[in-house]
Amino acid sequence: MMISAEHITKQYTDKIALDDVSICIPDKKIFGLLGPNGAGKTTFIRILNQMIQPDSGTILIDGNPLSYADVERIGYLPEERGLYKKMRVAEQILYFASLKGMSDTDAKKELQQWVERLEIAGWQNKRVEELSKGMQQKVQFIATVIHKPDLLILDEPFSGFDPVNAQVIKNEILRLNAEGTTIVLSTHDMNSVEELCDSITLISNAKQILSGSVREIKDSYAANKFEIVFSGYYNSLLTTLTPSFKILNQQKDGDKTIVNIEILHDVSTNDVLTFLMNSGKIISFTPILPTMNDIFIEAVKQQNVTTNE
C-alpha cells in the first residue's frame, strides 16, 4: 500500500497541528514518522485512520482518494493502549478481529498462530488486568495485526517492553514487512529507526523539515569525519601538524591502530589519504556518519532557530 499525502493542513481552534505537510510513504517499506512531542505526528496518524479530517490537502492510497473502506486495510497500534481490562485475552483479540471484518473461523486460526509466536498461548483465558504491562502490549500488538492489514501504523510499539521482548516485536515487524505489509513507525527510539526504517519524515512545530531515505539523510549530515585503521602502531600521527585535518582520537587495538580524524578546509580525501599513507599501511578508511539521534536533535534545533529569528 502506497500513501501519498499532499499539502495536509489541520488546525485546532488557535493551534496549527499540521502546516502544509506532504508525505510519501512507499509501498511495502518501513517508514519512520518522527518528531518531538506535539509536533503533529498523532494528528497525521488520526487523519490516516479517518478519525479526523484535514482542513485542506489530499491523501491517496495506491493512487485513489482515501475512503472509509480503507479502514479495514489498516492496523493501528496507538501510543495510548486501548484494551478492556476485564475481558479475557482471547475474547479481546477476537472482538477486535470482528471489528475488522474477520470471520470467527479465520480469527481463531490467526489467534492461535500469534499467541504461539509471541509465547502467550497459556494466557488466553486470563483477564487483561492479570497481565504484566509487557504481556498486555503483546495482546495489543496481536489485536492490531490479526486481520493482516496492508498498512500497519505503530505508535511507540516498544514502550513497556524489556530488551528481549522489544527484539521479538522488531523481528515480527521485519517479518510482516518482508511479507508485503507497509509499515509506519512513529517512535522516539532512534536506534529502532536506524535498525528498521527505510525512509523517514521529521515533523517539528507542525512543519515537515526533513524527508528521505535513512542512508541519504545520514550522508547529507556527515561532517567530514573518518575512521582510519592502520596495520601496526603509529604514534607519529599524534605529533603530526597539518592544516588538512585534525586527529580526534587514536587508540591501539591488538596489532592495529584506529584513528578518527576530521578533514578541515577545502581538502580532498585523496590528498589526506596520500598524506596518511606515509605514516603506515592503511587497512580501511571509513566515513563516520552521524546517528539518527544526532540528526534528529540537530534538525529540530535548526528549525527552532529559524522559527525564532
Shape: globular
**Mean pLDDT rating:** 89
The main sheet orders its strands as: 6-7-8-3-9-10
Supply the CATH superfamily name of the largest domain.
P-loop containing nucleotide triphosphate hydrolases
CATH domain topology of the largest domain: Rossmann fold
Taking Cα atoms only, what radius of gyration do you get, to the nearest Å?
A: 24 Å
Structural class by helix and strand composition: alpha/beta
The total beta strand count reads 14
As residue ranges, the low-confidence spans are none
CATH class of the largest domain: Alpha Beta
Q: Label the CATH architecture of the largest domain.
A: 3-Layer(aba) Sandwich
Helical content stands at 25-40%
Query: Could you tell me how far the N terminus lies from the C terminus, measured between alpha carbons in angstroms?
Result: 40 Å
Give an overview in words.
This protein folds into 2 domains: 3-219, P-loop containing nucleotide triphosphate hydrolases (Rossmann fold), CATH 3.40.50.300; 223-287, Alpha-Beta Plaits. It has 9 helices and 14 strands. The protein has helices at 41-48, 89-99, 104-117, 133-145, 163-178, 190-196, 214-220, 269-277, 292-308, and strands at residues 3-12, 15-25, 30-34, 56-61, 64-65, 74-77, 151-155, 182-186, 199-204, 207-213, 225-231, 245-253, 256-263, 282-287. The strands form 3 sheets. The chain has a 6-stranded mixed beta sheet, sandwiched between helices. It has a 4-stranded antiparallel beta sheet with strand order 2-1-4-5, covered by helices on one side. Strands 12-13-11-14 form a 4-stranded antiparallel beta sheet, covered by helices on one side. The mean pLDDT is 89.
